[in-house]
Design goal:
By secondary structure, the chain is of the alpha+beta class. It contains 7 helices and 10 strands. The protein folds into 2 domains: 147 residues, no CATH class; 66 residues, SH3 Domains (SH3 type barrels, Roll), CATH 2.30.30. α1 packs antiparallel against α2, α2 runs antiparallel to α3 and α3 runs antiparallel to α6. The protein starts with 9 loop residues before the first strand and ends with a helix.
Length: 237
């Protein structure tokens, strides 16, 4: 809980769950559940070939059901997947991860580490939504929190540049309605806003979850240090 003296200075931005992820999607039937994590490779094709006819392109976070597997003459492995009851096709293996497939949590974690900015946050959220028993969850929670704090600094700068010629509404309401927050909102990432400095700050939810769920992990000690810095900054506001 934040100190009472900050009650007027910090405004919470309320988040709602992202529609594109596991909470709202209905998983397709007919095979092993998988999720798109690399949209660059997520071309759904009529045949298991990179030159096969494009059926559609799938977005990151899309759920599919794996029916079968086949390797092309070029050495590329494809999965035959159901996307809906009426839509199926072949998709390159590296575009997907499956919670029931050995080592796919590690493969996604490696992809998260190689990602940057919003891509890293989006893939971290997919990991946390689907790999519920992975031993890598503490590391992903710490990474998500750190990346969200980095994003807060960037959002503060871009938002400040757009806040010109404001209308009659309270100034802070323009900041909290800033369109640059929307995609983070859909990832259930929350920022607080300090009116005195006109800066956003990550609320630390991933760090707190890490401490609560994995208190003995090395990452929990790091998370405590992150929160101590946040709270010390808030006390000086």
């Amino acid at each position: 809980m934040f100190p009472h003296k900050l009650a007027l200075g910090l405004i919470f931005f309320v988040c709602i769950p992202i529609i594109g992820f596991a909470q709202k999607q209905k998983p397709p039937a007919g095979g092993r559940l998988a999720v798109v994590v690399d949209e660059r490779l997520a071309a759904l094709r009529a045949t298991p070939q990179l030159t096969g006819k494009l059926v559609r392109r799938l977005g990151r976070g899309r759920l599919v059901a794996i029916k079968s597997i086949k390797t092309s003459p070029a050495g590329i492995t494809f999965f035959l997947v159901n996307v809906t009851r009426r839509t199926r096709g072949w998709i390159q293996r590296e575009a997907l991860v499956s919670p029931s497939r050995n080592n796919d949590d590690r493969r996604l974690f490696d992809l998260i580490q190689r990602s940057e900015n919003f891509d890293r946050l989006s893939r971290a959220r997919i990991f946390l939504d689907h790999f519920l028993r992975s031993s890598l969850r503490p590391a992903v929670l710490l990474l998500l929190g750190d990346s969200a704090e980095e994003a807060a600094a960037k959002i503060s700068k871009t938002a400040a540049r757009t806040m010109k010629n404001l209308g009659v509404a309270p100034e802070f309401s323009y900041y909290l309605n800033y369109t640059g927050l929307d995609r983070y909102n859909r990832l259930r990432i929350t920022f607080v806003f300090d009116e005195s400095t006109k800066r956003f700050q990550y609320d630390g939810a991933a760090w707190r979850e890490l401490i609560r769920r994995y208190p003995k992990s090395p990452q929990a000690a790091e998370a405590r240090r992150r929160l101590e810095v946040v709270y010390s900054q808030q006390r000086t506001m």
